[in-house]
């Protein structure tokens, strides 16, 4: 299976490396607005550089990995869909829900294969947790609790064009909640503020937020986000059910603990998302390749991307209007 | 210091035992509508049985412990306040906020010493957590997360007269949130449903709930409750701040872990509230006695009782009206 | 059941308090060479002071708790046995194995009830571990591993008359090993040195030691001791068997953990033996009282005391002679 | 840097894969007595098959990885040393100490670069533990405790030619002890028996063993081994020192824990040594390549291999003779 990679930044490199490491896959062409970046990834993966047009027009290319900025995603999905390429696209499809819906209409008409990069579903810990819940390890699901805190906030310049905490950061947690709940939330309430960095507040965004949601059948979920955690990249999920509780704890660099007069000290949790989710990115790419090779539609798909965005939008509106909001 | 105990049920026995175990205290008189229960506690604490009138009228009695049903609390506080007794009263003061306010008016006029039995503040784990937060161990507080799940739901007959989950169960968590936040919540959003037992839903109550709150300065709190947890009485608090995070984990019967072909198995968490909070009840009584002996006003006091009830009321209204509610 | 307490130091006070707290027991008489100490414990337990002769001669006294210095134990056991008192005696019976054997001969002739104070058997964690092993939770036992480290070394003056690390400190671990193994060790090898405090070495003793033992059927045990642990009183047991492994971990003051830029920090383990083994001392006394009331012989008994001393002696000889030694 | 790999079994494949994955290294030639196995690894690493003579005679080959059976190691090291190849050889150099010494004489004369595959030194957890100890995190080292249990015993046919538990299995722990102690043990006492499988005993070996050792300065070490652990591949190290204690705990597949009516259950520890030590094998190869490229002598070297074998031999003799033995 031959890939074209569009966008060779941090995440493009990850996917490029994972593709190149598979015996049955190959990075054929890579494109980037920065020629040097494209060259570097091409060299590292034994690929060639190309324009986006060349990638989409090449009969060599079976699949594209869209790793370019968010505002290009919807266009590229549509173009790749029309070019009959299998599509792996980083989240989100777009910051605007209308644009997402228009894009998914094209996907539907072309019957394109689209997978959206919610990598956390493929983390071995969260994947195992979801599987155990789905298999009934804790009986009927009742409460999902997600804690998600970045090690440190992005620059305010990034914040300004990110769509804000709910659409940029918590969208991962909305997808995780849906992944585990197995049922759509019908109401969202959000609260939040800028406690980490006042400049974030001045830019019209928040850096600390809590959200609660409920489904039609009465299941509830809670999400807590912060843009900063001094002890590492805090990523935890807990699910309570009729027969018990399951949680996936954080991941540390080593299992070493040092005891002394000041107590027992364990390592911080893994700080960097590429390290924390290294296996997740690899498993995610594997899932995409395996689905395409089997002629199946991979998940999370475009609809999953839409639903997560609808929840992010509802949370944003709830925070703005101080009302409980139904996603739509 | 000589006590009169009003109400000799489960909680009256706990306080009676703790009073009798102190060298500087004595249970002098005990009253209960069930003479046999009163006799039993009197025998166990070397006290005498008496009527409530006798207790309140006795010059021997310095302090009363009000351990009778909730609907008697406000009246007894008022009568004891007028009788110039130091007052320890189980939570809540009343299910009706107006009644609480009227009662506190009497407390104010009589300058009575009143402590309300939010025992969890005195649990060694939660007390240590609060102290560390207050002393700056994690810098400026940002997010408080409270998980509180009973081992199993009470009978529906109890539910019906309890005031419901928010006023009966989550009130402890509202007090805990206030204890740690050090600032009053100004908005409450609640969601919940009857997932554990349909009969609870039919009685107009819920058994599963999540709540988020925010303070004027933007601090946020989240609470999650269930009336049932198969793995024991789940009582956890986590606080996130500018410099780190602190949490108080559950308490187990032993530190034993058994490993085998099915994994590593640790004990359930302590199942019974009297066992889980044994030290908390003892420390709570100590705090009351020490404050009274020092001529100080103990905390949590009547105002703390009122504030927790206002939050419970707001959560109840939020759940009923599907609106965000400001406590008042 | 009425007790006479001989010796009102730290350990006498513990037992006195536990006796006084039982509704079915009473401290009747207390004796100490220091009249003020005797007075203090008598006051705290509503008892009277007396001479040892008076205690042993009193028809009021059913049982004696021997809490005096080690070199008085054997004599007092013999006298109390002849006086037909039930006997609870702190470990060890004597530092000299011959003296122990002579003492046990008197116990045998008088058919006296004797329990030796190996308190750790009654710690809830170790008791639960032993029970699970005995009930087959890990199948056939293969390896017992005991880690036992004091928070800080005793004064060298104490060391000098203590009998040394093996007889004074590790004797607890020999008893624990026997308790769990359910079979007598037939060979002991010891190594050790004075690493904590050179003065201990100059006094002819060691402060750091490791021992291995094996039973006739080939089960093995290992013990590690240090007179100093900066992180608290380190007390752990692990057992490996055909079907798995079980361990009892240390006990901490709180369940609080603080995370920050330097990692995740939990509390030190409980530092003080009276606090660490508070429940063990209470359960131990209960076991003695319950056995005496039921007309049964409590364990650990005099033979258990002898066997532990034989292992301590073997370990001492192994260390001295650099040979493997068979206890005898 | 171009490698020849001699032996393409399980461990040869691991090293081959790690070599091929480095951008600066290449597997040039592979040899095995089984041509199909050689072909398979050659195909997977883009190498060619060859005879051992061809590998050692090829001017293309800079380094050899000796992954063939133990009884070929010493000969191959000598031949490779004379052929001026850098040498990575799996442990042990030989089962016979005399043969090891003769081999190391050749290494010395040829000034060959030899690294012995004690992979556990390169496990991120144990490497971090050793580094922290060496950097003084716990002050002066006093006690090293190593627990090492295989998930299940090898076939008795393997046992018979393995050299026995001490030379085949515990040799890893002797190397680990030396790695951490930083000082040679001068005395060894061993006990052990065949508890897991009687057939192992009938073959003249044991499957359960404990060893203690001491160094000249009085540091002590204890090792416990079993050929079977139902809960996974149990690999732990703990070190006690003047200022504290450090331990490296086991590694699990996920961080998931499931709580229910039977307690809290975590995953077994990683069961398979290639999975448990995946990073260790990679880091080990990196260390070898980096040392060779820098013109440095890597560790663990031939002398380390000899010293570990001397300890294994001493332990074997101690077990056989029931004496404490000085390694030599």
Task: Tell me about this structure.
The structure is a homotetramer of 328-residue chains. The first copy, chain A, is of the alpha/beta class and 328 residues long. Chain A has two domains: 2-112, 3-Layer(aba) Sandwich (Rossmann fold), CATH 3.40.50.720; 120-321, 2-Layer Sandwich (Dihydrodipicolinate Reductase, domain 2), CATH 3.30.360.10. Chain A contains 13 helices and 14 strands. In chain A, the strands form three sheets. The first copy, chain A, has a six-stranded parallel sheet with strand order 3-2-1-4-5-6, with helices on both faces. In chain A, strands 8-9-10-7-11-12 form a six-stranded mixed sheet. A two-stranded antiparallel ribbon of chain A has the order 13-14. In chain A, strand 2 (26-31), helix 2 (35-45) and strand 3 form a beta-alpha-beta unit. Chain A is globular, with a radius of gyration of 20 Å. The mean pLDDT of chain A is 97. Chains in contact: A-B, A-C, A-D, B-C, B-D, C-D.
Query: How many strand segments of chain A?
Result: 14
Q: Please indicate the count of domains of chain A.
A: 2
Principal-axis shape of chain A: globular
Question: Residue ranges of chain A: pLDDT <50 for 5 or more in a row?
Answer: none
Structural Rg of chain A: 20 Å
The CATH architecture name of the largest domain in chain A reads 2-Layer Sandwich
| Oligomer state of the chains in this structure | homotetramer
The separation of the N and C termini of chain A measures 37 Å
CATH class membership of the largest domain in chain A: Alpha Beta
The overall pLDDT average of chain A reads 97
How are the strands ordered across the major sheet of chain A?
A: 3-2-1-4-5-6
Protein structure class of chain A: alpha/beta
Determine the fraction of residues in helical runs of chain A and give it as a percent range.
40-55%
CATH superfamily of the largest domain in chain A, please? Dihydrodipicolinate Reductase, domain 2
CATH fold assignment of the largest domain in chain A: Dihydrodipicolinate Reductase, domain 2
Beta strand % of chain A: 15-25%
Largest sheet of chain A: 6 strands, parallel
How many individual helices of chain A?
13
